[in-house]
Amino acid sequence: MNKTISYNLADTVLMKKPHACKVNEWEILRLGADIRLKCMGCGHIVMMPRSKFDHNLKKVLTKANDPVNEKNEFFVPKENIVQPNFNQDNN
């Protein structure tokens, strides 16, 4: 069964298994071959391969910058997530 759930940077997602702090909600901090996630219960940050993330993802709870997220103390707004700058001048 192929499941295609679309997710983006700063979305809050629900995973199959909870973190050690008993919270299942994670915020996406980085997208690429590896995905960086932050636990919304304790603030712990983990990285996992995209294939493992796709397998363990249950659903997207809230999209980026949803007002519901602002109540959570560990939420980082999308504009505050650092994104790499690949524009390099070779002078």
Automatic annotation (TrEMBL):
Q: Name one Pfam family in it.
A: DUF951
Entry-linked InterPro entries: DUF951
Entry superkingdom: Bacteria
Name of the featured protein: DUF951 domain-containing protein
